[in-house]
Predict the 3D structure of the following.
Amino acid sequence: MSRPKTRWIVIFAILVIIQFIVLFDSGSLPDDAAGAIDKADTAWMLVASAFVLFMTPGLSFFYGGMVTKKNVISTMLQSFIALGVISLLWFLVGFSLAFGDSIGGFIGDPRTYFAFHNVGLNPNALLSPTFPFLLFALFQLKFAIITPALITGSFAERVKFTSYLIFMCLFSLLIYCPLAHWTWHPDGFLRKWGVLDFAGGTVVHMSAGFAALAGAYVLGKRHNETHQPANIPFIILGTGMLWFGWFGFNSGSALAANGVAVQAFATTNFATASAMITWVMFDALVGRKISAMGACIGAVVGLVAITPAAGYVNIGQSVFIGFAAAIISNLAVYFRQQRTSLDDTLDVFPCHGLGGIVGMILTAVFAKDVGLVYGQTQTFLYHLLALVIVGVFTFGGSFIIFKITGKITRLRVSEEDERLGLDLSQHGETLSTTPKAHA
């Protein structure tokens, strides 16, 4: 048996220390507040939280089916491992950074809910007035989990697994948590400006898209960019899981079992349907074959684009949002492939980044009572300003984090490991073989 490398000894030691900190500093169990909560809202938020968690395994199938056969396991694991890593970070300090007492509207006080202190079964008047505050923290956790997983598609097939783990932790704490605070905390400065993000178009998809752009730029091109997707049925399965889970993503963001949740459910479905059909019809229009992968990518673009608008627009407007996002992302994908040297492996920026941008802008156009179509300009102008701020912060911050990670450990695998495939070189596993049991 080979000796463990020093960095793994340090990481495991940190994990052990954290266990003892939370074990002996966890306080008493919270009182049952069953009499003070709305049972319908609580039941719905439990279901919605489970729906959103289901999206991350769905993303792993979606991405895993798109890469070459020698990189399927590694790509799927990059999504799946976020369930564990981000859960522990969120429990320890992430939730507090995102939703703790505001420090100037920019970040939460890390002491407010450190290790889930004061996160109990009673409602929170500002964040979860009708259901347990602990449930709100768990619901928001699922958004924090999937965001770094989305980024992995941009550097698939060449990133070193340990460097990805470091990047994921730094991105979550330094990029995602501040964005969530700006946008969703009652005292966040973007929220005070009136910037609307119903379920994460800015916080999740734009941030993932710009971080993906930075990652593709920093890591550079693969040595062999031509590849055949490993498993189209995996892509279809992943899309179905994402579409299903997205109902919790968007409808759950109503934070109640009410009409807004129903409206978000409907707009989510119809925007997605519109984008899927638009994508394949546009492919046919320009002379490409109608493909299963195209239908799936189009559907996901629709899910992304409707996310910031889901509870603010009507069904007809949601259909247009899906239509517009599909055409823009479709053009961007083929422009990236044919006119640039950027190797965004699974087109995360053209689909999630631009999809989120289209959704954010059209939210400001169509949002009930405050959108441009209602003669209001303030929301639209603040959305444009927020777009610039979020883009610069997320791209610049992610670029710096990638550089810092590269100083700690090598970002890319070697050329030989890339040729061999990340499944085998990083994890000692392949699709066709079963690893030997450990002694």
